[in-house]
Design brief:
Pfam families: Voltage_CLC
Oligomer: single chain
Strand order of the largest sheet: 6-7-9
Helix content: 40-55%
Organism: Durusdinium trenchii
Subcellular location: Membrane
Mean pLDDT: 78
Keywords: CBS domain, Membrane, Repeat, Transmembrane, Transmembrane helix
Protein name: Chloride channel protein
């Protein structure tokens, strides 16, 4: 079996077309006076293979660099606003504690956080309902090569950015990673749409033989989608790179996230350049600000070269052995809470969306109330030299509250305090245990709340607290030499690798945050042990489980075991007769085909044999031209409105132009001109794993199943 080869790769006119599009040359296409479309030269749609885009060098690199710089600017303003708002929120809390007493302060602080949560949820449900989550599972499904309707829109981009800021200011036990990666892909998608659309339009004659010329401009969907997915991957990598100031980490994260089967060769260098530019611009902007903004970048700006010794290795291993199974049960607990919350919301579905809005507001208040009360149980400590990093809360001047320093702050700030090797004697076991119990419980309970949330930093914080407690015990009772901050990093890596079920990216991020390459060996050892134990309990990570539960289209690199006993014949789609078209079809036949809402790829049959597939977008564009000729009355039945089928952007990406040079005399539409010829052909007895690779790795979207005699 051979794969469908890309057509048009040797097109000698491609370079000329590129120059024309860039304004560097004049078109040589002959036109008749008064004609708005080319002469009849291209009679059928011309497509490339599913893994090529053939877009000009300037276009792709321009989109890559613009995406990188724009993401850095968006990140700068995001953390600047969050920094200002969070500083105001906690300053208000401290002011209330000093003037009204701690109990009135707790009440006021809870009400304040509830009001911010209310603003967040009202904005989500009135302006951007799709922003009520991280968007990571959907983004992963899109980058895997699937169509996710209405995922990347300008409304979702702006809505997710604003909602993410409000959610972080509220104080939910979440981070910005998931929403930021989705925002990076969303931004890249929109920029590519604007920049690349002129280069994927094609003129296709759709008039019947013997009639006058009627032409439509159509989109080569495969080329367009491939280009978008390349730049969307770069946008997501930029998001992670600027959060952790780690370009390499952003690249490795996206590689492990979407797997090698969805990673085109050219993505590597584009991501390398894009993340470098994004990280440099982001760092330059951060250097223009005060230290408060740096608190939102998990990075040790002033590292202490205190490493680890061989006496610490057994404790690192013990820590990984404990956290590996714990991370698996933490994932299961999150999924169980999400399922329980979904059932609860269904019981009050008649009040939707107010039931979900109330859930988000009440949980925001619960988080603030819990943090405030738990922090009261801490013993105040005398202010150290670097105590500017800590929170005073209910303590007198000259002292600080260790628990409040971990809870009444941002997740990024808490992680930095845990990772620091300068405060080994500032936060002790009891305080870390209180913070761990409260934060972990609220982190699990947050799953399913309709707010933008990323659990990357949350998992790091939970693992860091466990590691920090282990480090405190080893320091007081064991022979270890490493400071507690190193144990926090090892615990954070062990927890994060289990939750996300990725290895290399975790080590890169933690090493970069520590600013110490000497930690690579113990981190790799801990990640290996933790991930092995985690996979013995959980087959998939949190995002993969979310994909399954939300029924998001996604093809893993390797086929599931159930496909070993499945043949191609059993996997066929049972299409209604209306969904199959003849090479030349009349208007009513095409209209009946478009009425099949669940079909987006229509087989074209000639003498009972499939000669190719056409798409809903192309048929819709052709019908619009046909109607404009006047052959079909404007008052006739109209095909149903098209949904945004992933990258085709029906109704948005397809523009139709008509050039009518004489009266229309045809009565059928030559569908064969809109058809991709030479479809993938599969024998009905082919084993499932063999044909699986055709869709998961070769990028096929449809195939024709035939018998040994060549029959459909």
């Amino acid at each position: 079996m051979t794969l469908h080869t890309a057509r048009g790769l040797n097109d000698g006119g491609f370079f000329q077309d590129t120059l024309v599009a860039l304004g560097l040359a004049k078109s040589s296409t002959p036109r008749k006076p008064g004609s708005g479309t080319p002469m009849r030269g291209l009679r059928r749609i011309k497509t490339s293979g599913p893994q090529t885009h053939k877009l000009p060098f300037v276009v792709m690199w321009g989109v890559t660099l613009v995406t990188a710089v724009t993401m850095a600017v968006i990140n700068f303003f995001t953390i600047w606003i969050i920094s200002f708002a969070v500083s105001w929120k906690f300053s208000t809390l401290q002011l209330m504690v000093d003037h009204l007493g701690v109990w009135f302060a707790i009440l006021g602080f809870t009400m304040l956080c509830s009001c911010i949560a209310l603003c967040c949820t009202i904005f989500i449900y009135t302006c951007a309902p799709a922003a009520g989550g991280s968007g990571a599972p959907e983004n992963k499904g899109f980058l895997n090569g699937n169509e996710i309707p209405e995922l990347f829109t300008l409304q979702n981009l702006i809505g997710r950015a604003i909602a993410t800021m409000l959610a972080n200011v509220t104080g939910y036990p979440v981070g910005r990673e998931g929403p930021t990666v989705t925002m990076g892909s969303n931004l890249a998608y929109l920029i590519t749409h604007v920049a690349a659309l002129p280069f994927v339009r094609q003129w296709v004659d759709i008039d019947a033989p013997g009639s006058a010329t009627s032409a439509a401009t159509m989109i080569d969907e495969d080329r367009f989608e491939h280009a978008k997915r390349i730049v969307c991957t770069v946008g997501g990598a930029c998001g992670m790179a600027m959060l952790f100031d780690s370009p390499i980490g952003g690249i490795v994260y996206m590689f492990e996230e979407i797997t090698s089967s969805s990673w085109p060769v050219e993505v590597t260098f584009r991501a390398f350049a894009g993340t470098s530019v994004c990280a440099l611009v982001s760092r330059a902007l951060l250097n223009m600000c005060g230290t408060s903004t740096k608190a939102f970048v998990i990075y040790e700006w002033n590292p202490q070269p205190t490493g680890w010794s061989w006496r610490d290795v057994p404790f690192f291993m013990l820590l990984a052995v404990m956290i590996g199974p714990f991370s698996a049960f933490h994932t299961r607990a999150c999924l169980a809470v999400a399922a329980a919350r979904q059932k609860l919301m269904k019981r009050f579905s008649s009040y939707e969306p107010f039931n979900k809005m109330a859930d988000a507001v009440l949980y925001g208040g619960l988080v603030a109330l819990t943090y405030s009360l738990v922090a009261l149980s801490a013993n105040c400590k005398h202010t150290a030299q670097d105590a500017v990093q800590f929170v005073r809360y209910d303590c007198e001047e000259g002292k600080y509250n260790p628990v409040a320093s971990l809870l009444l702050t941002t997740s990024e700030g808490a992680v930095k305090r845990l990772f620091s090797r300068h405060d080994a004697n500032e936060i002790h076991f009891r305080n870390e245990l209180l913070a761990f119990l409260s934060y972990t419980s609220l982190n699990i309970g947050l799953t399913g709340v309709q707010v933008p949330s990323g659990n990357f930093t949350g998992s790091m914080l939970i693992g860091g607290l466990i590691g920090r407690m282990m480090g405190a015990l080893v320091r007081d009772y064991g022979p270890g030499m490493a400071v507690s901050g190193v144990y926090a990093m090892v615990g954070s890596a062990s927890m994060l690798c289990g939750f996300k079920q990725m290895a290399v990216a975790v080590v890169v991020f933690i090493t970069g945050a520590a600013n110490d390459l000497g930690l690579v060996p113990p981190l790799m050892l801990a990640v290996t042990i933790s991930l092995l134990l985690n996979k013995q309990i959980n087959e998939r990570g949190f995002d993969e489980e979310q994909i399954l539960r939300k029924a998001i289209p996604f093809l893993p690199p390797e086929p599931p075991r159930l496909m070993d006993r499945v043949l191609a014949y059993e996997l066929r789609d049972d299409l209604p007769p209306e969904a199959t078209l003849e090479p030349e079809a009349d208007y009513r036949s095409i209209e009946a085909a478009l009425e099949q809402d669940k079909v987006d790829c229509f087989p074209v049959l000639k003498d009972g044999h499939c000669i190719g597939f056409t798409t809903r977008a192309r048929l819709q564009a052709a019908l619009e031209v046909w109607k404009a000729t006047g052959f079909v009355e404007a008052g006739g039945a109209r095909p149903q409105a098209l949904s945004d089928a992933g990258g085709e952007q029906m109704g948005k990406l397809i523009s139709v132009t008509v050039a009518r040079e004489s009266s229309f005399s045809g009565n059928v539409l030559p569908v064969k001109r809109l058809t991709e010829k030479a479809p993938y052909t599969i024998l009905e007895d082919m084993p499932g794993p063999r044909l699986y690779a055709l869709f998961a790795k070769a990028g096929a979207k449809a195939a024709s199943v035939i018998s040994e005699k060549g029959e459909q």
